[in-house]
Design brief:
The protein has helices at about 1-25, 25-30, 40-60, 70-115, 135-150, 160-175, 185-210, 220-225, 235-275, 290-300. With about 300 residues, the chain is mainly α.
Length: about 300
């Protein structure tokens, strides 16, 4: 082994000068970085490579062995093998870093677009950690959202958050206008619950339908139909079109169910606004506001009658 290192150091030291000359004349031969740099070639083959060769030679002197032919030949071809390998590795690493940067930018863009689409004032449900005061309806919402997330439908899962926020808001408005246990309160709460349960059924149906096409790569099918259209047989084209039709039909069904949930959200908003307009508390003023304003105006007009110096 020490003899091999001695021979390798001799071969590496000899070829470093040759590569220095060739690299100064044509930097692309000696510098694996793109674009090649002449100063990097000088540093690489005038200082770094000879230093490595001397270090290997000093290390191999402890054994007292003579340099081997195999080590000498390996030292002669070491730089010729290392430069292309390093150039290929650098190219792979640059492509990988570019790909990672692209994925990061796409993820950041997706998060930003999702936050822009996110409705203000919406409380986010964590299916794994439901709220402490969650009732059975809220737990059902958590299960429906978890089912959508499991089939990778983050585009429809936020509807569960919106339903939860509307439900809490409407129940809060009902509690501020009616006494808990009052007939009107129980009646309104029951209707709100039924609307929310219907929306939960839609979310569950969406999760079930989405799971049916979760294994179909629609983008791959479209690429096959466009890029390899001339190479496909009639049977393959029919099968791919059928697969794509299944995906498009399921997506249409999902959009219809999502539209029903939007109608349910609108109904909950209508209920909250209508209940908020009710005046169920006892009025504190003995006169109506318009009548009180008119009386106050007449008093101001006749206020001079109370002037004792008049």
């Amino acid at each position: 082994m020490l003899g091999f290192l001695q021979g390798f150091s001799y071969g590496l030291f000899l070829t470093s000068t040759v590569w220095l000359v060739m690299g100064v004349i044509r930097p692309a031969l000696g510098d694996p970085v793109m674009p090649p740099r002449r100063w990097a070639v000088v540093v690489r083959y005038a200082f770094v490579t000879p230093s490595i060769a001397v270090l290997l030679w000093l290390t191999s002197l402890w054994g007292g062995f003579s340099p081997s032919l195999g080590g000498w030949l390996a030292g002669l071809v070491a730089i010729a093998v290392e430069v292309p390998l390093e150039r290929r590795w650098r190219g792979w690493w640059a492509r990988r870093r570019k790909s990672l940067d692209t994925l990061k930018r796409n993820a950041e863009t997706a998060r930003r677009q999702a936050s822009e689409r996110q409705e203000a004032g919406v409380q986010t449900l964590d299916p794994e950690h439901p709220p402490a005061d969650a009732d059975e309806l809220v737990l059902s919402l958590c299960r429906a959202k978890q089912a959508l997330l499991e089939v990778d439908r983050q585009d429809h899962a936020p509807q569960a958050d919106r339903l939860y926020s509307r439900y809490c808001h409407v129940i809060g408005v009902l509690g501020s206008r009616f006494e808990v246990g009052e007939l009107a309160y129980e009646r309104a709460r029951g209707l709100v619950t039924q609307v929310c349960l219907g929306a939960i059924d839609n979310l569950t149906a969406m999760a079930h339908q989405a799971s049916g096409i979760s294994g179909v790569d629609a983008a791959y099918v479209r690429r096959r139909l466009t890029r390899d259209a001339d190479q496909l047989t009639i049977e393959e084209r029919i099968a791919l079109k059928r697969r794509l039709a299944l995906v498009e039909d399921t997506e249409h069904q999902l959009r219809q169910l999502a539209a029903r949930n939007e109608a349910a959200l609108t109904a909950l908003d209508d209920a909250a606004v209508a209940v908020a307009r009710l005046r169920t508390d006892k009025p504190q003023a003995s006169l109506a506001a318009d009548q009180a304003c008119a009386e106050l105006k007449r008093f101001v007009e006749g206020a001079e009658r109370y002037d004792r110096n008049h």
